[in-house]
Design brief:
5-stranded antiparallel beta sheet, alpha+beta, 34% helix
Length: 87
């Protein structure tokens, strides 16, 4: 897993390279850390899923999102997570 930090105004971006088998666990861990504005899931440089703050903030939607991430994890060998946090 690799972290890269860049700051754009009030937003901090972090990149995590994770194996598909660790995708769901990594996203859950990041969500519990808080201050998330947006999460992008990339595979081979292409965005395959975006999770905006509104989806992340509503706990009821976490289960379907986790299920979708599980399907993606089964298909992908490695993904990049781009996490935007409120600075």
């Amino acid at each position: 897993m690799t972290d890269e930090y860049t700051t754009e105004g009030q937003t901090t971006r972090e990149e995590f390279r994770v194996k598909g088998s660790r995708l769901v666990a990594t996203v859950k861990r990041i969500l519990h850390e808080g201050n998330i504005r947006h999460i992008h899931v990339l595979h081979n440089g292409r965005t395959v899923m975006e999770l905006p703050l509104t989806v992340v903030a509503i706990g009821v939607l976490i289960a379907p999102v986790a299920a979708a991430l599980g399907v993606l994890a089964a298909l992908a060998t490695e993904c990049t997570l781009v996490v935007e946090r409120q600075a």
